[in-house]
Specification:
With 275 residues, this protein is mainly alpha-helical. The chain has 15 helices and 4 strands. The chain has helices spanning 3-7, 13-25, 34-39, 46-56, 69-81, 92-95, 110-113, 122-129, 141-154, 165-175, 189-194, 200-206, 217-224, 235-247, 268-274, and strands at residues 62-66, 87-90, 229-230, 254-255. Helix 2 (13-25) runs parallel beside helix 4 (46-56) and helix 5 (69-81) crosses helix 8 (122-129).
């Protein structure tokens, strides 16, 4: 991948959100700001901006989490576990998503937590970040990442640049560096569906939680996939369909909501122009 294209790939928001939450969990009166300092001069996606602001302002009664369901679930779990009373302000898309509001879930096993909210791994990840070292057999990438993050934090390792591996994998296929593409997580669905690696039915069987993202991604992809005008406000949908259109030299596709991609990929359109 060319140097310019690497420059435009985003930081792994899932990784740094976990480190930010660990800095909060580790705090007594003063939050360890090493993660915040590291991120202070980086190009951040919207979810990471929301995370940085939430941690910085955690002493306030009201916390704005933007559109980040990961951040909302992690902070809710943290507050429930520590009997902290906070009000969370959420964006319009997140307001429509199903998010459990039962504080007693802090007592559930990881397996039970994985059954909540259509099977999202975020509640189980929150429990792991907050000290649950229960052994669980899983190949879920986000659960494994949470366990790695705890080990990383506890060992005091140096914070370094970590690029979003899911987006990097998609970018390599789009640019022709990889001739095959292997999907491995729900974040791969829109790209895989757009490029014909998966059917809707296969995606639904693999990741039932797809119905509970910024859109119902199963329906949204079917509604948008053959359109010349892309009206979706879901960042993954827009990214995948824009890349597919360019790959097929269909440059007349109109994107109605181009800024939505910044939720996960702030320099997507710079990458797109270089591709």
């Amino acid at each position: 991948m060319g140097i310019n294209q690497i420059e435009f790939l985003p930081l792994d928001k899932s990784w740094y959100i976990r480190l930010c939450i660990l800095s909060l969990c580790d705090a007594d009166d003063i939050i360890d700001d090493s993660v915040l300092q590291f991120l202070s001069d980086k190009e951040l996606c919207d979810d990471l901006k929301s995370t940085v602001n939430a941690v910085k302002n955690f002493h306030h009664k009201t916390i704005n989490v933007g559109e980040s369901a990961t951040l909302l679930r992690f902070l809710k779990f943290y507050c429930w576990k520590n009997n902290i009373d906070k009000k969370f302000v959420v964006g319009p898309m997140l307001k429509r998503r199903q998010v459990c509001n039962d504080k007693d879930i802090v007592n559930l096993s990881l397996e039970k937590l994985l059954e909540l909210d259509y099977g999202t791994s975020q509640w189980a990840s929150a429990s792991i970040l907050m000290g649950n070292d229960e052994d669980i057999k899983t190949d879920n990438e986000k659960i494994l990442m949470s366990k790695r993050a705890v080990k990383f934090w506890n060992e005091g390792e140096k914070i370094e640049i970590v690029i979003d591996k899911v987006i990097e994998k998609q970018a390599k296929y789009f640019l022709g560096y990889d001739s095959t593409f292997e999907y491995s997580c729900a974040e791969d669905y829109c790209f895989s569906r757009s490029f014909g690696f998966l059917t809707r039915e296969e995606g639904e069987n693999l990741w039932p939680q797809l119905i509970n993202h910024e859109s119902n991604r199963l329906d949204e992809m079917e509604n948008q996939i053959d359109n010349r005008v892309i009206t979706s406000t879901d960042h993954r949908v827009v990214q995948s369909l824009a890349l597919k259109a360019k790959k097929n030299n269909k440059l007349n596709v109109d994107i109605v909501n181009p800024t939505c991609v910044s939720k996960s990929w702030p320099e997507f359109w710079k990458f797109y122009e270089q591709g």
